[in-house]
Amino acid sequence: MTRRRRSTPKQQPRTDFAEEAQKTDKSLSSHAPMTQYQHFIPRFILRRFQVGPMKSKAERQREFRRTGVDPEYVYYYDITTGTLDIRPIGKVYGVPNVYQDVRNTNNINELEEKLAEIERQAASIIMDLHKALPQGTFTLNRRSLELLRKFLFIMHYRNVSYSGTYFQADHPENAGARQWIESFMKAKGVQSPVEIWLHFLRYYLDTSHSDIMRDAAELVEKYGEERLQKMMTESHISPDLEHFPAYTYHTHADNYFFSIWEAAEGEEFIITHNAFGLWEGRAGGCPGLHRIFIVSPRIAIVLRLVISRPDMKEYIKPGSFVSSLLNVNPAPPTPIYASGERGAHIDHVNFQSAMSLARYRSSQEGGNDNFVFKITKLSRPQTLEFNSVLLVNVRKTGSLTFLSRGSMLRTARAFRSLPANFE
User: Fold this and answer.
1) Do residues 324 and 191 make contact, with C-beta atoms less than 8 angstroms apart?
2) Tell me: the pLDDT tens digits for 214-246?
3) 3-state secondary structure of 266
4) Mind listing the pLDDT tens digit for each residue in 338-373?
5) Rounded distance, CA 96 to CA 116, Å?
6) In the beta sheet, which residues pair with residue 394?
7) CA-CA distances (angstroms) from residue 315 to 282, 309, 327?
8) Strands 137-141 and 256-262
9) For residues 303 and 258, is the Cβ–Cβ distance under 8 A?
10) 303: which of 188, 283, 360, 374 lies 20 to 30 Å off by Cα?
């Protein structure tokens, strides 16, 4: 059920990243052609790695009408063949028809349209984040933060590599979930793991962050965190828990604090086929100290386990954390409660109750809270080490993209100098 993987340039001028977050080769409609290239890394992110100057939507359209060729390109290194070339953004980091739901006879591309909408909203927030880099801080209200968290979770879940295995009953990592998967397939009349994967992609897209967290809170109130964790890792998931995937979302949202990392001046982050939600590091012997999401050559959003917060240090045994990124010390966000730190709306919240927290966070008062993030500026060695983490986890059948050749060359040299790469 829960998959775990092993563990620059001036800011671009404002363009239509948000307006065209998920441009496809054809317009999305119920009458769209059966074959459609659908991205698992959104175009608005790939455009920040674009070769050559950024073009407006009108400029791209004029060039396409004149040449018939997609005018947007990125560097693309194919690990399998060992070749580097320049490819159209419209033909990389995607798979034909991966989000088409053939059971939805009214509109087989409905999920792709829903993905486009959340991408549009996230693109606007990420554009504002880039504009805030010179200030060193970035402020989000609770609803925007929730939307960005939801976007990141879905970006990880939607990765095509999961479509056939995430709910595969006989997959070795799903041994504890097999009975639940088989029961769910029977109850919903679905025939394949891909259909379940699409079913819950729809659930995550259609359901607000607040409502997903309420669904999860009901499970926590009924079974307790410890028992639910054991269901995931040691025993089996009860067949009657229809909303168990809400608990997976809950662990992603509540167990990690959100941090923003900026590449060193003159350096850049690279992006790989699996750079959304990549697990890194271990905590107490369990994988997943960090979750990594690359959103541009300048910015990575990193989720770090809350038990690594500075105020938790006295409760953690030395050596509990193992990671290549421990020399980076991101600060948790500073909350600014709309009603004041000890306001009436805060005082009545039971912080030990998942449902009480979910109710407050979904309330109008909770929606007015703000969170101030201190942007963590990496040094050059830290940036190169960060990129090395991505390279370590690239599969032999994978790929990577970068913005500038000079920065990529420094990253490659730093990676090759790691002791593990000495023969």
Assistant:
1) no
2) 999 999 999 898 888 888 776 678 777 878 889
3) coil
4) 877 655 556 667 777 889 989 999 999 899 999 999
5) 16
6) none
7) 17, 11, 19
8) unpaired
9) yes
10) 360
